[in-house]
Amino acid sequence: MTTWLIRRFIQAVFVMLAMTVIVFVGVYGIGDPIEILISPDADQAEKARAIAALGLDKPLWEQYWVFLKGALQGDMGRSFVFNEPSLKLIAQRMPATMELAITAVLLSIILGIPLGLYAGLYPNSFASRAIMAGSILGFSLPTFWVGLMFIMVFAVQLGWLPSTGRGQTEMLFGVPWSFLTWDGIRHMIMPALNLSLFNISLVLRLTRSGVRETVLMDYVKFARAKGLSPNRVIGVHVLKNIMIPVVTVVGLQFGSTIAFSVVTESVFAWPGMGKLIIDSINVLDRPVIVAYLMMVVLLFITANLIVDILYTVLDPRVRLEGR
Amino acid sequence: MSATVAKDRVETPFQRFVSEFAESKLAVAGFIVLVLIILGAVFAPLISPQNPYDLAQLDIMDSRLPPGEKSASGFTFLLGTDDQGRDMFSGILYGLRLSLLVGIGSAIIAGVVGSSLGLLSAYAGGRTDSIIMRLVDLQLSFPAILVALIILAFLGKGVLNVVLALVIVEWAYYARPVRGTALVERSREYIEAAECLALPRHRILFRHLLPNCLPPLIVIGTQQVARAIALEATLSFLGLGVPITEPSLGLLIANGYQYMLSGKYWISFYPGIALLVTIVAINLVGDQLRDVLNPRLRK
Question: I need a labelling partner for B194 at 20 to 30 A (CA). Which of B35, B53, B173, B211 fits?
Fold first, then answer.
């Protein structure tokens, strides 16, 4: 178990390193680093100073080393637009994204599992067919389009929900949160639902196929024959055994939910990291772009690592195999 | 009468394929819609009443007219106009052209790259295999949007850059299943026979192995076209995709987004419907292809 854990950890570090190389090559190799890293408003003398300060006159491997050292110390350059450390900007916007992503993942569990359970238990009913057809749409429709339709119907036509922004926030641990006020929650409903549609479809389908396989198992038949109530059979015997793949997938999806929040945040003008990165790309604020990419990749790799570890804890078969 | 005739004649594989495909009415409907969409996109310059890229034809006085409204020169805008006075119907046809071109083009290039690497991986084995497959693992563990975002953040806007980003995102989706199929096919007797004949390696790979890996490849291909179109639309909506001078469906939707809140829904709505219908039609066809081409489901 320990060897496996160490190996898995080293693997994660290597993926992270690979990503730093890719981002580094992206900034320094493909584009012109002087244009990318130095503000276009700088004059000649400033440019020369900046080139020397950034070490752009040094060989590429040495530049990479400097970049890596800076990244490890949390220094990824200053934003041209805000003139603040780019990592600090990202950190300021992160709670909003996290709030949205966590709500979306929770929604996918709260809605996906019951719907999947129903569709799995009564596969031929009309409602189940409707649920499955809906899940295909949830998979294939572009998130941004669904978001626009939400705004068009619920904000513009019906006027039920606010269309953009975070609404009123309340401070907790020195960070503003939307879920603490009613106005904030109202602002969060559409973006969170929009972001979770793909995950809902995924969880729903996994639960459904899990249920359909599990109800045919001998131990479920035995539990029924024993005279247990249907609720207990489904709630304990069936549900418990289909949770492992569902938990894994929800965990693995957390990273992509954060990545996809770029789209949702742009549609609903949600002031998170995703909105920041799109704005930064549009004004070519490259230090912020680099910081964002490194941050998301780090989040992603950490989430995957945690899921892998949880998986071994939940499923003894994996644990034994790893020995 | 006709039944006995049909019995006497030997059904070709293609005829069987067509009749099996036609079993699902929904898939046939999807196919018809798809053909219409492709025809509309190909013949856009002939059908559309206006060239939306030609600024000389646009009149700013016609901007943001609702569907059915007439222009100053007596021309009726079927689906209304956008903020530059562009006829939305023409804009959608031209946008479809670009969306389909980018989607199909990137899916084909990614298919060629991905399946070549998949075949190579299966046939060469050893270190080549493990290097390619680790790359595939790494690639598939990151969401498509993040990979595309990284690439476009550095390369900037442009049709070719979007195609490149989509190819880089998609190739791994072909490589893995092709490798799997090729590994199974490789151990079959006909490959052994070809090897006994001392045929050159590339001939075995592309003339013997590849045709037998085609069915899964076609299914993945249709799914990837739909995904690519959706991803391109998303990227263009975010302002990272195609340039503003050649609007694809995603960019048309983005252009209308700011007017949606003031009730001028048509600028975003109709391009969105075109996008939706295209993606759903491709998926319907793709699902039926998967069922028909899957040998395990064959009766």
Answer: B173
Chain B neighbors of A145, CB-CB under 8 A: 233, 253, 272, 275-276
Suggest the residue from A145, A268, A280, A282 to mutate for an interface test with chain B (most B CBs closer than 10 A): A145
Q: Residue B109's pLDDT is what?
A: 93
Dist CA A106 CA A250 (whole Å) = 9
pTM above 0.90, yes or no: no
> What is the structure's pLDDT at B106?
92
**Integer angstrom CA distances of residue A107 from A90, A121, A186, A275, B143:** 25, 21, 15, 22, 20
Q: What single string gives the DSSP state of each residue in A269-309? A: T--SHHHHHHHHHHTT-HHHHHHHHHHHHHHHHHHHHHHHH
Which of A23, A30, A142 is closest, CB to CB, to B234?
A142
Q: Would the CB atoms of B150 and A22 count as touching at under 8 Å?
A: yes
Contact B175, B114 (CB under 8 A): yes
Return the exposure string of A116-147: e unless at least 16 CB atoms fall within 10 Å of the residue's CB, then b. Answer: bbbbbbeeeeeebeebbeebeebebbbbbbbb
- State how far the Cα of B136 lies from the Cα of B182, in Å rounded to an integer: 16
How high is the ipTM of this complex?
0.76
Q: Which of A286, A212, A270, A288 is nearest to A28 (CA)?
A: A286
Taking an 8 Å cut-off on Cβ atoms, the answer to whether A263 and B234 are in contact is yes
Using 50, 70 and 90 to split pLDDT, how confident is the model at B284?
confident
Q: Which long-range contacts (CB under 8 A, 24 or more apart) does A289-294 make?
A: A289/B153, A290/A23, A290/A27, A290/A76, A290/A77, A290/A86, A291/A76, A291/A77, A291/A86, A291/A87, A291/A89, A291/A90, A292/A90, A293/A19, A293/A23, A293/B149, A293/B150, A293/B153, A294/A19, A294/A20, A294/A23, A294/A71, A294/A76
